[in-house]
Amino acid sequence: MNAKEELIEKIKKICDGYDETPTGGYIFGDGPIPCNILFIGEAPGKTEVEQGKPFVGMAGKTFGSYLNSIGLQRDNIRITNTCFLRPIKINQGKNGRKTISNRPPKTSEIELFKDILNREIELVNPKIIVTLGNTPLKRFTKFNSIGECHGKIYFNEDLKKDIFPMYHPSALTYNRNDSFKLMYENDWKKLKNTLNSI
Ligand code: URA
Fold this sequence. Notes:
By secondary structure, the protein is an alpha/beta fold. 41% of the residues lie in helices and 20% in strands. It has a single domain, classed as Uracil-DNA glycosylase-like domain (Uracil-DNA Glycosylase, subunit E), CATH 3.40.470.10. β7 and β8 form a beta hairpin. The site of uracil has 12 residues, from α3. Keywords: 4Fe-4S, DNA damage, DNA repair, Hydrolase, Iron, Iron-sulfur, Metal-binding.
């Protein structure tokens, strides 16, 4: 078994053994190993589990188009998540019908994958880690909110890696004003400049 297969086996074992609360399945990271750029999101949603890949749903479409806008393709980057399982919430309607929705991962669920994600980073050995949203931000920096640090580079002493925090692409869905869009586009341009300088 090679290192990548070992990683996959470990993720499977953790997810299959997780019985604290129902989950909506799990996925692994996607893209080349090693790779110069590693993007880290929060956790997969329904479409990601169905297709077995991170960022292929609605947020993934937004992510892909901004990625292309700075001259990058999915094939040239590695993308993974802070939590490999899909955290779900089961809601019961007044008519008794159950619906399933996504929820943010609990701290304990992020903790489940701490060593695995560190191992993935070690194998990918990226020049830069781009965190998408608050969940990976809190995992890899001392910041609590993306609003205070996006679009700049920080050094993680433990990992000895550069970290570039960005808003999660789904933030565009919640912030439909022009100034947010402009700021988000600008962060991608800053990422492009940063990539050219490292
Ligand atoms: N959002 C994430 O944070 N990760 C995915 O894989 C998909 C959507």
